[in-house]
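Hi,

Apologies if this is the wrong queue. I'm a grad student, and the batch job for Tripartite tricarboxylate transporter family receptor from Halomonas elongata produced an output file that my downstream script rejects. I'm not sure whether the problem is my script or the file. Here is the sequence I used:
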Amino acid sequence: MSIKTPLTFVAVAAFTVGASSAMAFEPKGKMECLAPADPGGGWDFTCRSVGNVLEELDLVPASVQTINMAGAGGGVAYAHTVSKRAGDDQLLVAASTATTTRLAQGQFPGMNADMVNWIGALGPITASSPYPTAPSTTICRN
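Support response: The file is valid. Your script probably expects a header line. Output copied below for reference.
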């Protein structure tokens, strides 16, 4: 399986979950993906890859620009999002289970899970897995 196939799945699944929880949200114009790290790392790769797939599948009307914002283990990017970009539907922010754990533990001062619009959590299933599919759950916070 090529790298493009899992990335397509990730982008489509993330966008589909996001659209369903946002009541058929349709982006307007350029989208941005905030990578909470320096250029060239994993978050940068995640934002660029998801952006490319969203563009290739015509799920966004314009380009997806990656913005890198390193510092405090993601804290700088998340603080910026909460203070300057809250409610911005044109912004995606890369995150992981480590990010959600740190958020739950209160390691991002002044931030909590209620300040985040979760669009999805994804994980790969390899061809050799005894589980052909994984259960899916959509959680909406208003």
